[in-house]
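I am still getting used to backbone structure tokens and would like to learn alongside you. Label the sequence line and the structure token line clearly, so we can match residues to local backbone shapes. Go ahead whenever you are ready, and we will take it from there:
>
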Amino acid sequence: MAQENIHFFAKVKGIGFFSSEEVLPGWFYTNTNTAVSEFSTVSGKFFARSTYSFKESTKIEAGFSGFYRNEIAPSFQRNNFYLRFKNNWFQATIGAKNQKEEAFGLSLTNKNFVWSNNARAIPGFIIEASTPLKLSKTFSVDWGIGNYFLNDTRYVSNTMIHYKRLAIIAKINDNSKLKIRLQHVAQWGGTSPEFGKLPTDFSAFVKVFFAKKTNTEGENVNALGNHIGSFFVDYVFSTQVGSFNVYYDHPFEDGSGTRFANFPDGLWGLTFTPKKTPYFFLYEFATTTNQSGNTGVSGFDNYFSNNLYRSGWTYEGNVIGFPFITSDKNIEITNLTSPIVSNRIQAHHFAFSGKHNALSWKLKTTFAKHLGTYRQPYSKPVKVWSNALFLTYGFKKYGNALLQLGFDNGSNKNIFAIGLGYEYKF
């Protein structure tokens, strides 16, 4: 019998910010799960996780995290709050849990156009592969299916999210691997102020699962619910100098996107990890300007917006997916308005991380151009250059000292900011 074990991990983190303006540079708060707001001067975070292993490769895990940040209501909020069962075949999670961090947290989208780490963790449940299931020496499969609950204040209250993914992974040889993933989410159910309670029975679930058309009043003419998804292609290959990763994440919201009429929209990425060094380099190009064009029935994809689910692909006003799509929390949402004010964007993003002795760092610099939407374009493009440097110095016994430097240039003003903090793990 395997020895019973209980493992506990906890972390506390606090940081204060000083900015030349009322707001912080974008990379100080973007993709932080809202642990920092754009107006914060103080942020504190606590995370705890306990794991109970009662068989080989079988365990139960419970986690909780919360944070405090001023200048936002409520100041105190939970983030993670979950229970997970895991074995060799699958894992089942109930509660709210952040998406797994990818690319050392340097990616624009966490390598997921649909579901980044920009919004707070959303409560729900998911069953998924704990590790890819091997079909042969060459092929393996990753999968997941779940349902989440948007419990925030929104135009259609009590909206649910259907989620699923399926990926095929091919080990081409010892030096290269290819992954192709289909990911699909759909907002469904809830109560509309215009049309009342929307269908949530088994028949509705089947229509949502297969994105089937509906005759329900007020629903999208394409399918029941608000459907969003992506095709993700990820290729990793190793050379004598290091490992390269090339990827493309292609978004779709209806049939035009699934047939690539909106190409080349999406996230294009390249990373490089030199051999025998603690360095990591990343470049990404994101574009959402095509949207299947601005004419005809199949055009105006209008990413993350929807005619029925008018709060869009947001949680508590924060965009769930690609965070450079802009949501305005000050807009009163009616049957004629949308909080998504800019979803036609181009961005070049460079990032670098490394470590030397006790000092580690992350550097991000992004050149972004915002065009508004097809139906409400900006009078002229809004160009923003965003920069941030994150430094961590680890003491052997006394935690980590944190220093952040940020600079944004754009919107007719420059923003300089500094963050000083401390982190302790136990």
Summary: The first helix runs from residue 26 to 29. The chain is about 5% helix and 55% strand.
